[in-house]
């Protein structure tokens, strides 16, 4: 029975790379029902694919389908589950200005992007909703690409993943429709693209969490190594949208791979929304400055931000289309 179950699941998953249409979405729904009926778990699927020499990421029962990544179908090497290694530099090091997205004359960090037409309109809306927090509370603006050579290409590839920082040229951010479109998950991958690492890999993390190596498979050990990170003089953030969950990559379902210290009951691994410290770090890394908010007359539907040095009409017209700025 188990062999037949795994065969059915394997065939269904492999079908994901063969076509991208409504039938694929239907197959995923069927697969989920099969697993539920046969008490299948994410661990079953993870272990099956590990034996097939396929890298997998499975961080829990919720939205686990989206966390499976398959290098044979992905043109990147993935580490830490969702970090794609750069083809131009060591992606695990992001220190130079070339790794950051440039700032425009108006003080905004404009990150051009495209969104695959594979997404339904409602899915595109989910991505834009996740971007709104960046627009409201930082100087980062994700803007539709208009011929820029460096840009993010948001695609529904296999899994949720991104490179670290600006990589140059077309830079894929994979947000699979099979579970990667939660607001916090979208923000997580966009933060990678802006240059941020996972919180649990901070250079000072041993003061705040205990890594339970005995519960981590050897294949995933690297995912828990500390990095030489720039912490921007900010505190360790258990509530960061960049923090792994308590049982991420556990060799035994439900076992802790990360335990907060000294209070082991502190929640970690949320994917609801960026934390205040996540936002603070963006503003620090990109040196976002506070802007004066000018409210337009009632006939307009948006607010306009115009500083004293930007009184020219052409600048005013440009800012009319910008979301309101009130970071800091």
Walkthrough of the structure:
- This protein is 26% helix and 11% strand.
- The protein is built from 7 helices and 9 strands, in the order αααβββαββββαββαα.
- One of its GO terms (biological process) is proteolysis.
Major sheet size, sense and barrel closure: 5 strands, mixed
Report how far apart the termini are: 58 Å
What is the overall silhouette?
A: globular
Percent helix: 25-40%
Mean pLDDT: 73
Number of strands: 9
Tell me what portion of residues adopts beta-strand conformation: 5-15%
Number of helices: 7
Structural class, from secondary structure content? alpha/beta
Order the strands across the largest sheet as they lie in space. 4-3-5-7-6
Low-confidence stretches: 5-74, 87-92, 292-328
Radius of gyration from CA coordinates: 21 Å
Which assembly state applies to the chains in this document? Answer: single chain
Helix and strand element order = HHHEEEHEEEEHEEHH
Secondary-structure blueprint:
Elements lengths: L1 H13 L7 H16 L4 H10 L26 E2 L3 E2 L24 E7 L5 H17 L2 E5 L6 E5 L4 E2 L8 E6 L7 H12 L14 E3 L46 E3 L15 H10 L27 H8 L8
Parallel strand pairs: 3-4, 3-5, 5-7
Antiparallel strand pairs: 1-2, 6-7, 8-9
Helix pairs in contact: 1-2, 4-5
What's this model, at a glance?
By secondary structure, this protein is of the alpha/beta class.
Core attributes:
single chain, 328 residues, alpha/beta, five-stranded mixed beta sheet, two-stranded antiparallel sheet, 7 helices, 9 strands, 26% helix
């Amino acid at each position: 029975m188990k062999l037949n179950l795994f065969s059915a699941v394997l065939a269904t998953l492999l079908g994901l790379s063969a076509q991208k249409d409504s039938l694929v979405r239907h197959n995923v729904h069927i697969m989920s029902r099969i697993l539920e009926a046969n008490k299948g778990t994410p661990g079953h699927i993870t272990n099956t694919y590990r034996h097939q020499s396929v890298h997998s990421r499975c961080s829990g029962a919720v939205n686990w389908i989206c966390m499976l990544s398959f290098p044979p179908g992905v043109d990147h090497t993935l580490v830490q589950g969702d970090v794609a290694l750069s083809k131009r530099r060591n992606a695990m090091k992001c220190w130079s200005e070339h790794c950051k997205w440039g700032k425009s004359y108006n003080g905004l960090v404009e990150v051009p992007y495209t969104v695959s037409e594979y997404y339904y309109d409602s899915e595109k809306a989910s991505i834009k909703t996740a971007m709104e927090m960046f627009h409201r509370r930082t100087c980062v603006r994700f803007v539709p690409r208009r011929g820029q050579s460096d840009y993010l290409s948001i695609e529904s590839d296999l899994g949720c993943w991104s490179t670290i920082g600006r990589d140059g040229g077309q830079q894929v951010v994979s947000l699979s429709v099979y579970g990667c479109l939660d607001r916090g998950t979208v923000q997580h991958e966009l933060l990678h693209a802006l240059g941020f690492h996972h919180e649990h890999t901070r250079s000072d993390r041993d003061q705040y969490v205990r890594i339970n190596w005995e519960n981590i498979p050897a294949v995933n050990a690297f995912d828990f190594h500390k990095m030489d990170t720039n912490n921007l003089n900010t505190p360790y953030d258990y509530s960061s949208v960049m923090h792994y969950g308590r049982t991420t990559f556990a060799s035994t379902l439900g076992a802790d791979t990360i335990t907060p210290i000294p209070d082991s009951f502190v929640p970690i691994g949320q994917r609801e929304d960026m934390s205040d410290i996540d936002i603070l770090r963006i503003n620090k890394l990109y040196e976002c400055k506070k802007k004066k908010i000018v409210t337009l007359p009632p006939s307009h539907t948006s607010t306009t931000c115009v500083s004293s040095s930007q009184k020219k009409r052409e600048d005013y017209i440009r800012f009319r289309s910008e979301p309101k700025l009130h970071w800091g």
